[in-house]
Backbone:
């Protein structure tokens, strides 16, 4: 596995929380490509050719380049010397190692939460989760991502260790390209919503180990979804060959 560091700017910049792009045309292209990636139309490691994208979107190369720069900024596209832009691809080994770290961090944070949590705390998290549920029902990718991450940041923030929470958030941002595929899968979203409900119930109880375990089980959804995508992409044709000359 190549060296991966949360201090590496190319990884640390993978923050989906950045503001919208200034160019509306480029932003529309950005959103369309992002949906294609998360829905599996564009697969990990697939090359994004400017000329093909410009033709598809009936847009200028300038707008396409701006869109690709934005996608690189939020961490789901990478630009490589002499190869151009590609859909960001983690290897299976990288995914396993990153998720091992996520499991350790999240388990320790959860075990530090004092249970039962105050009623107002549970209510605050329930309100955030209501927003997540509504985003899922409406199929809004960005609201799903935003409300999901807000729910977990608030939950882990209850551990009282700001550095630990910061590390958890860093790895959440690092895995945006991995987690995004699950946002487009209705079955996985149903599992995610059920896990959130269980977490809320456990916050009102006293079983710290059960709460920690559901938090670890919860992230397996996105890990397994991405590993499945990697297996499929190794056998499937690229978008260019599917679309024909």
Residues:
């Amino acid at each position: 596995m190549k060296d991966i560091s949360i201090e590496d700017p190319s990884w640390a910049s993978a923050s989906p929380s950045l503001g919208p792009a200034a160019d509306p045309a480029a932003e529309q292209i950005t959103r369309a490509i992002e949906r294609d990636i998360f829905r599996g139309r564009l697969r990990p490691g697939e090359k994004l050719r400017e000329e093909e994208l410009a033709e598809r979107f009936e847009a200028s190369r300038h707008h396409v380049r701006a869109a690709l720069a934005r996608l690189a900024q939020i961490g789901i596209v990478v630009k490589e010397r002499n190869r151009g832009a590609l859909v960001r691809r983690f290897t299976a080994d990288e995914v396993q190692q990153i998720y091992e770290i996520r499991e350790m961090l999240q388990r320790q944070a959860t075990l530090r939460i004092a249970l039962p949590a105050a009623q107002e705390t549970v209510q605050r998290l329930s309100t955030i989760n209501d927003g997540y549920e509504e985003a899922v029902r409406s199929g809004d990718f960005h609201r799903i991502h935003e409300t999901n991450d807000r729910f977990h940041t608030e939950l882990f923030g209850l551990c009282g260790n700001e550095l630990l929470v910061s590390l958890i958030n860093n790895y959440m941002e690092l895995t945006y390209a991995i987690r995004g595929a699950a946002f487009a899968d209705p079955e996985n979203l149903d599992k995610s919503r059920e896990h959130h409900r269980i977490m809320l119930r456990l916050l009102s109880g006293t079983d710290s180990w059960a709460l920690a375990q559901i938090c670890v089980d919860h992230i397996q959804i996105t890990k397994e979804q991405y590993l499945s995508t990697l297996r499929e992409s190794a056998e499937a044709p690229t978008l260019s060959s599917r679309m024909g000359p």
The mean pLDDT is 86. The radius of gyration is 19 Å.
